[in-house]
Amino acid sequence: MPLGTLDRTPPPFFRQGPSALSKLLVCGALALFLMVADVRLRITQPLRAVLAQVLYPAQWLILQPVTAARGIGGYLQSLQSAQQSEQGLREKLGLQSQKANQVDQLLLENRRLRQLVELRERVAAPGKLAQVLYDSADPFSRKIVLDKGQADGIEAGSPVIDEAGVLGQVTRVYGAISEVTLLTDRDQAIPVLNTRTGARGVAFGDASLAGGTLELRFMAANADVQPGDMLATSGVDGVYPPGLPVARVDKVERRNDSAFARIALRPMALVEGTAHVIVLQPVSAQIPARPAAEPEAPAARKGTRK
User: Fold this and answer.
1) Measured distance CA(272)–CA(142) in Å, rounded
2) CA distance linking residue 241 with residue 119, whole number of Å
């Protein structure tokens, strides 16, 4: 008889203990009793406290990686948020700085326009307000280009002033723009009057490459000219109205080997930084035309019979 066919299970006579269903019922009833007792009488509260105290170190060790990961994540998120906030604040600061610069520029422009209007009120000649577009590209001349031209009634030879004084003269006129030659150009000359002494003279543009200044030429070495004297237009040239500020005497050099003094002038107008100007009508254009001569009556012939 093969061994695999033998029944190795013990006979029912040797089986001991309750059945599985009985164990399930007993354990279920016990669990229900303990839950009810714990809810009503809290008999397991001391046991829970002891277990919590015993298991706390293990819980702490298990939670450390989680806490560290949360801390690192929070730090990185806070760092990123701080960097974004800093970038935003930098952009706002840049905008505020730009606005502040614009405010300063507008205040300066407003102040210059007020001074220009005040000077315009003192001038009797009619004029037009114009804006400087750009400087001439020629490095050997001192010229600027305005946004007014022949279409706006600008004429060649018209004097140009800014808020501080005479700036130059219109030398070329196009359809929509016009070119102004500044007083500091080497080819420009303007009759002036010393407001302190009443002496007349002629101021010429600086011929040096640096430019930016004027020179009062053909003044005697013993002429009464002092640093600080104000020079204004004399009005004898028929172009500039009289009384406009032109320049201030900067330096006077009297040399024994020359009959004329070397007098350097500093222009009153902002020849290198003006933005708005007034183009005046030339004085010659304001002078009325000479009336036509009346024809003479024919002379009576002698010996005419009545």
Assistant:
1) 9
2) 12
Task: Tell me how crowded residue 239 is: count the other CB atoms within 10 A of its CB.
Answer: 18
Tokens of 165: 């004084």
CA angle, corner 35, sides to 32 and 40, nearest 5? 125
CB 176 within 8 A of CB 147: yes
pLDDT at 186: 87
- Count CA within 13 A, CB hemisphere, residue 198: 0
> Which stretches of 123-229 are DSSP H helices?
none
Rounded to whole angstroms, the maximal C-alpha distance in the chain is: 197
The 10 Å Cβ neighbour count of residue 289 is 5
- The SS3 assignment for 77 reads helix
Please answer whether residues 256 and 189 qualify as being in contact, where contact means their C-beta atoms are separated by less than 8 angstroms.
Answer: no
Q: Contact at 8 Å (CB) between 231 and 150?
A: no
Which among 114, 112, 104 has a CA at the least distance from the CA of 274? Answer: 112
Domains (ranges, CATH) in the chain?
127-285 (2.40.10.340)
Count CB neighbours of 141 within 10 A.
19
Express each pLDDT in 110-164 by its tens digit.
676 676 666 666 666 778 889 899 888 777 788 999 999 999 989 998 999 888 8
Per-residue model confidence (pLDDT) at position 144: 92
pLDDT digits (tens, 9 = 90+) for 250-290: 999 988 888 899 999 999 988 887 888 989 888 776 665 55
